[in-house]
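histidine kinase, pasting as requested.
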Amino acid sequence: MPLGIFALIFGITLLSMYAIERGQAQREEAQLNARATAIAGALERRANASSAYLRAGAALLSTMQTVPADDFRRFVSELRLDADYRGAEGIGWAKVVLPGEIDEFDAMMEAQRPNVHLNPRPDGSQPFAVPVTYLQPDTERNRRALGFDMYSETTRREAMIEAERTSRPTATGRVVLQQEGSGEAPGFLIYMPVFEPAGGGRVLKGFIYSPFNAQDFLQSALELEDAGAYGVRLYDEGENGRQLLAGTFDGDMNDREGIIKTVTIANNPSKLVISKKSSGGLSGLSMATLIFGLLVASLLMLLVQMLTQQAQEDEASLAWFEEQASIRNSLTRELNHRVKNTLANVLSIIALTRRRADNVEEFANGLDGRVRALSATHDLLTQSDWGSTPVRAVIDAELLPYADDSEHHVDMRGPDVELAPNDALSLGLATHELATNAAKYGALSTPGGEVKVHWKLVSEALVRVEWLERGGPPVKTKRTRGFGMDLIERIVAHELKNPVELDFEEEGVRCVLLIPVRRATEFLIRANRPEPSARPAPSGK
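C-alpha cells follow.
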C-alpha cells in the first residue's frame, strides 16, 4: 500500500512534468522556426545582392568587344561594393578560350603576370576552356586562381552550363576554391554568363563570377540575423549527397537535426539546418514540480508505512516460527539420509578390509587410512555446507602428503567442476586408494615418479577423471585382486553409477572415472534462511 500511494503521486507528478516539458518544447520549436526563417532570408538577401552586381557586370561586358584588364579593374572599383557584398572573395572575369586560342591567351596572361598560363591544359574532351582571366581585388590570395580552367572541373562546369542555359546567376555546389591553395575550406562560386551578338543570335563570350568562402558567406549573413543560442549548418544537396558547407555550432550542439529550411542561393537550392544547444536537463518549472511531487509522495508513503508496520512485524514473526519448525523437520530427514549413506560406506569398507587382512594390525591400519579419507572429504563438504565441492579440492585433500615431495611430481589439471556430496565422497575414496597403491608399489614409491590427474567435461552432466602413473617400478600385468580394486570397481562404480576403467599397464597404473555432475540438494535452512535483523526474538525463559 505505501508503494502504491507513492507510485500514484509520482505518476501524477510525471504527467505534470510531461505537460510542462511538452509546452516548453513547442515554444522552443516555434522560436527555432522563426529564427530559421530569418537566417534563411538573410542568406538569400546576401546571394541576391551578389547576383545583382553580377547582372550589372554582365550587361556592361556584353557591350565591350574585348575586356582589357584596366577597364575591368575600373569597372569593379566603380561598383563601390558595400557591406551587402561581404563574404565574397571579389569579382572575376573568365573568358571563353577555344582550342586555337590557347597560345594567344597564354601570351596575354604572361604579359600581365609572369608564369601564369592556362591550367590544366585541355585534353580535347571539352569544346573550350574557361580560365580565370581577371580577379579583383588583386591580392596575393586571388592571384593563385589566375589561369585556372574552371570548365575542366565537373562541379564548376555544370553550374556554368546551367547559367548559360537560363541566362541567370547560378551557384555551384560544394567546391574548394583555387585561392585556398593547399587548404580544404569549402566554398562555392556564382556564375553569370556574358553573351555577345553574332549573326542575328548570340555567342557565349565568358562568365563574370564571384567566388565565396562558405564560412565567410554564412558569417556575413548572420551579421544581419544573429544565430543566438542556436547552431546553424549550411549544406549543399548535390549528386554526392548532403555535404557540409559551413556551420557556427560548437561540439556541444545537439547532433539531432532541428528545423530544416531550403535556401536558394543563385538558382541553386541548399539546406539550412537550425538546431538548439542541448540543455541536458529539465526546465526550472519541471524541476520544482518533481521535487514537490517527491516530497508529497514520500510523506504519504511514510505515514501509511508507520500505520501498517506493526501488523507486518507480527505477521512476519508468525511466518518465521512456522518456517523454523519446517526447517527442523527437513534438516532431521536430510541428516538421517546422509548418516545412513556414510554408515553404509563404512560397513562396506570394513567388510572388504576384513577379507584382505591377515591380522588385526593390518586390518586396523587399512581401516584407519580409509576412514581418514572419508573424514577428509567430509571436512570439505562441511566447509561448503554440504553443497557442491570442486573436483580439485577433493583430489588436493588426498594427494596433499605427496604434492610437496621433491622426489615426485604430481600434475593436477582440469576445469572448475562442482560435485554433489555423495559423488565427492566416492571420488575421495578412489583417489585415496590409488594414492596409497602408488606410494607402496607405484610411481610415488621411487624417486622420479610422476602422477598425472587430469579431468575434463565430456558433457554438461558428466566429468571424466583420469589417473595415470609413470616413472615407477614396472607393474605386474597379472596380479591377484586386492582391496583397492574391489573398492574402486564395486563401491565407487556403484555409487557413481558408471563403470570404472582400471588398467595395470607395465608403465604404470591407469584409472578412468566417469562422475555425474549433479546439482547438490540444498538444506532448506540454507535456501530460506531470513536475515538476522528480521528474526523476532522468541519469548521464553
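Note for the archive: Residues 232 and 274 are 5 Å apart (CA to CA).
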